[in-house]
Write a structure and sequence with these properties.
globular, about 10% helix
C-alpha cells in the first residue's frame, strides 16, 4: 500500500505539471534555501518507528511576497498502522525573511519564526499534543558555484511540557548541475537534559525549468531510531 501511494502521488502530479508547462521568463535556483519562490509541494511520506509506521501525504504551500519575505503552511495527512486511524497531523506555519549582504562568503542572514500547531489527535498517534514555537536565524555561506552552506540556530519552546531548548543545523547544498542538487543537513535539538540527533539527505531533480521538480529524501532521527522517507514533486508558480 505504501509503495502504491507514493507511485500514485508522483505520477499524478508529474502528468499535471507536464500539461501546465509555460514559457520560461527567468531562471530560478532552488538549490539555495535563501532564494524564495511561490510554490506548492506534494510528498508521499513514510515514518518508520519501532513497532509501527505512519504514512500518507504532506502538502506544503509557500507564498513569496517578494524576494525577501515568505510564508509557509504545511499540512500532513497520515495513517497510523497501530491505531488504524487516518487524519490530519500536526501542521506548521513559518515566516521567513532574508537580509541580503554584500560579503562574497556570508551573502545572507535569514531570521525566521516557526509554529507547529497540534492539529493531529495525540490519542490516535497523529500528533504530539503540544504547540511548538521556534525563532532563530539562518546564515547563507557560499564557497563556490556548486557548494554553499546554511547553518542555523533556533530557540524552541514546547507549551505542553513548558520545556525549551536550542536547535542547531548545518545545511550543506551541493549543486551537481543546473537541474540536479542535494541537501545534507545534520542537526541537533538540545531540550533541557535531552539531546536529539537528527539528519536529512534530500536529492532534487528539476524536470521543467521554473515549473516542476521532483525530490526524494531520508530524514533519520538517530536518537529515537525513527526513519522518515519522502518522495514528492514541487510546482513553482
Amino acid at each position: 500500500m505504501k509503495s502504491i501511494l507514493f507511485a500514485l502521488v508522483f505520477l499524478s502530479f508529474s502528468s499535471f505539471a507536464l500539461a501546465q508547462e509555460k514559457p520560461i521568463s527567468q531562471t530560478i535556483d532552488p538549490s539555495k534555501p535563501t532564494n524564495l519562490y511561490t510554490q506548492v509541494n506534494v510528498q508521499g511520506e513514510l515514518n518508520s518507528y519501532r513497532g509501527f509506521d505512519t504514512y500518507g501525504t504532506r502538502l506544503n504551500f509557500q507564498y513569496a511576497f517578494n524576494e525577501n519575505n515568505l510564508v509557509l503552511a504545511e499540512v500532513p495527512f497520515l495513517y497510523h498502522s497501530k491505531t488504524q486511524h487516518f487524519g490530519i497531523s500536526d501542521t506548521r506555519v513559518r515566516y521567513f525573511n532574508v537580509q541580503r549582504l554584500k560579503s562574497k562568503t556570508l551573502f545572507a542572514l535569514a531570521p525566521f519564526l516557526d509554529v507547529y500547531i497540534p492539529a493531529g489527535k495525540a490519542e490516535h498517534g497523529l500528533g504530539a499534543g503540544t504547540w511548538s514555537l521556534s525563532a532563530g536565524v539562518i546564515a547563507g555561506l557560499i564557497f563556490s558555484k556548486s557548494v554553499s552552506m546554511y547553518p542555523g540556530a533556533g530557540y524552541v519552546y514546547l507549551t505542553q511540557s513548558q520545556s525549551s531548548g536550542l536547535q542547531l543545523q548545518s545545511n550543506l547544498s551541493l549543486k551537481f548541475s543546473e537541474s540536479t542538487f542535494a541537501f545534507i543537513n545534520p542537526s541537533v535539538l538540545i531540550m533541557d537534559s535531552q539531546t536529539i540527533w537528527q539528519g536529512e539527505i534530500d536529492i532534487n531533480q528539476i524536470f521543467i525549468q521554473n515549473k516542476f521538480k521532483g525530490n526524494i529524501g531520508w530524514l533519520p532521527n538517530f536518537t529515537n531510531k525513527v526513519n522518515t522517507f519522502r518522495i514528492g514533486v514541487t510546482f513553482f508558480m
